[in-house]
Description:
Blueprint: H1 2-15, E1 18-20, E2 27-30, E3 34-37, E4 46-50, E5 55-57, E6 63-67, E7 73-79, E8 85-89, E9 93-95, E10 110-112, H2 113-121, H3 125-130, H4 133-140, E11 159-162, E12 166-170, E13 178-184, E14 187-194, E15 212-220, E16 223-228, E17 231-238, H5 241-251, E18 294-296, E19 301-304, E20 313-317, E21 322-334, E22 337-348, E23 362-366
Antiparallel strand pairs: 1-14, 2-5, 2-9, 3-4, 6-7, 7-8, 10-11, 10-17, 11-12, 12-13, 13-14, 14-15, 15-16, 16-17, 18-21, 19-20, 21-22, 22-23
Helix pairs in contact: 2-5
Amino acid sequence: MKKKNCLISLMLFFTLSWVFAQVPKIKYEVIKSCEFTYYPYLHDTILKILNTGEILQNKGEYRVSIDNENDNKLFIRLVDNNDLKGCIDSENIKIAENDQTSIALKNRNWVAKYAVEALAKKDINIVFENEGNVPRYASTNPTDFGDFEPWQQYMNIPTLSITNVDINIKFSIDRYLGVFTQINNEEYLSYSLSVWNYVGGKYLENIRQGETYKLTFKLDGDYLDLYVNNQFLITFVDVDKRISEQYLNFVKSKSYSLDNITWPRHVDGSCDYEKGNTLVASSSSATNVSINKTMSVKENLKLRSAEATSSNVLTVMSAGTKVKIIELGKEETIDGINSNWVKVEIISGKDRNGNKLKVGLSGWCYGGYLE
C-alpha cells in the first residue's frame, strides 16, 4: 500500500500543473450565527461564536480545507475586528454588501452535461473529447506500474459547486479544474487552475490564473450554462443520485443500468435523453452482456483492437470459443441486433483456421454475436 501511495504521489507531482493566485482583501459578512474554530473542522477548538452581521476579512489566505467528515464543508481562514484568526464554514458567510447566491444555483447536484450524454449514449469517448487527463491515463495504462488499478478505477464525476463565496469546477480523475473566488457580485478571481486537464485550450483559451472575470449563469430547467465575460464556457445539469451512481459504474466498467433513470429536463418540459430526441437512452435495451460473464462465440467473430468495425483485427474466433467479458463498451445496433461492444479475454477456443487461440488474449468484439 505504501508503494502504491508513493507512486500515485509521484505521478501527480510530475503531471499536474496547479497554479494559485493571491486573493485580494475581501470583507465577509456572517449570515448565520456559527462557530469560529482554530482548525478547519466543525466543533474543533472553538475560539468564539460569531454573530449574524459580524464582519470578517481575509489576509491573503483563502481556501483552507474541506472537512469530508461533515458533508464536504469548505472552510476559509479569516480574521475578526480584533485580529483573531480562525476558520469558518463558507456556507455561513457572504461577500459583505453583496446578495447571497441564488438558492436556485446552490445545493444542487450539478454534473457536466457531457458526462450525462456519455452515459445516455454509452460512449466513454465523449468524456475523452472533453477532458485532457482521461485519455492520458488510458493511454499510459497504469496497470504497468505494478499495484496500480486500471485507469477507470480513478474516475469520478465532473461537477460544479456554487457557494456564497466561490465557484468550484472539478473534472473526472484528479477532481480539479479551477476555483473562482467571488470578489463582488458577478466579479470573480481565477484563484487556481489545473492546466493539465484541458483539451487543446478548450477551457483555458480565455482564462488566466490571477485575473478577474465576469461569471454569469443561464438557467434552463435542470440545465445551467456558465459564461465567462459573456462567452459560453460549459453546461452542467442537475441530476439525481441514481444518474450519479450509474455514471460511476459506467466509467469504471462495472455493470450499470439505465432503468428507472429520471433524466434532466429543460424548462419547457422537453428531455434530451428519451425516445424521439437526439439522444436515446431507452431502458428496454436488448443488451445481453455484463462484466465478468462467460459467453460463447455464435459464429466466426473478429477480435479487434478497439470497439469499432474500422479497428485492426487481432484474430478471428471460431464458433464455440469461450470468452470472459472484462469491460463494457458503447451500445450499437448491428444487423438488427441491439447490444454493446465488449472487451473480452479468451478462455479457450480456436481461430477460423483451426489453430488454438492464446489463452488470455484480449480484445474487442460485438456482444450481439455472443451467447
